[in-house]
Amino acid sequence: MWIFEREGPSGFSASTTAEEVAQGIDGTGLTAIVTGASSGIGKEATRVLALRGVRVIMAVRNTKAGSAVKDAIVKEIPAAIVEVMELDLSSMASVRKFAAQYNATGLPLNILINNAGVMVSKFNLSKDDIELHFATNYLGHFLLTNLLLDVMKSTAAESNVEGRIVVVSSLGHRFVYKEGIQFDKINVDTRYKYGQSKLANILHAVELSRRLKEEGIPVIVNSVHPGSVVTDLLRNSSILSGIVNLIGKYFFKNVQQGAATTCYAALHPQVKGVSGEYFADCNLSQASPLANDAELAKKLWDFSLSLIAPPQVI
Predict the structure, then answer these.
(1) What's the chain's average pLDDT?
(2) Active site residues
């Protein structure tokens, strides 16, 4: 990563690690949920948040893998408070179950990191018969956020500490259809399904931020591009994974660098009061024109509500 050393206005660069971003920040008393926390960026974000004193709930599909990560973190950081809960974002039933269980604990929620994602080479449908990228990367997080929003609002009000929602997107949001989201072809096997889901992530952050600002709620929402990172996201494409692993150390970020922007948006005081923005390399960045289309964001919000609506009992 030596070619990306230039620092931005924040004082950080593409080579900055998550630990460096969080250095000196005291997260004691804060509670965070990190989705996809058993590997990659989510795993490193969990470790660094725990290192800074944040209580972290790992929301993972594979609880066995999650528990192994938790044990490793606690071994490294004996004072860490880390818990594992099951969450499959491709299943709305699983999302509803997770949210109900979390809300029943009575725990506060200061930080929500919507990190989990998939990248598959073949067309697949979720358990709810929705295209897998859209269902897992975007819609599952949309539903999760909606179900946890009340506890985030109450936590912010009672603690007088600003809540933060971090939506992990990607530069891939630029590689989409000319209209951005193909609402009438969500389940049609066409190109750009991954990019469409990543664009949806940013639009979600933009619209949710607008709504919270209108309500005067002290919860900020931002999206981030972690950079090109060698992670398990490529596990479903053996050829691409092999190429990236071969040359990745020369052109890609490592996981510690990849988690930096997520941790920056979740913890750093520079982000206080900043909402509806897009960050890359721990600095404000510019998303695509489609990602800043307010009407498209509103349309996606309404479309998403129709998809997550419980079926009517006749």
Answers:
(1) 92
(2) 192
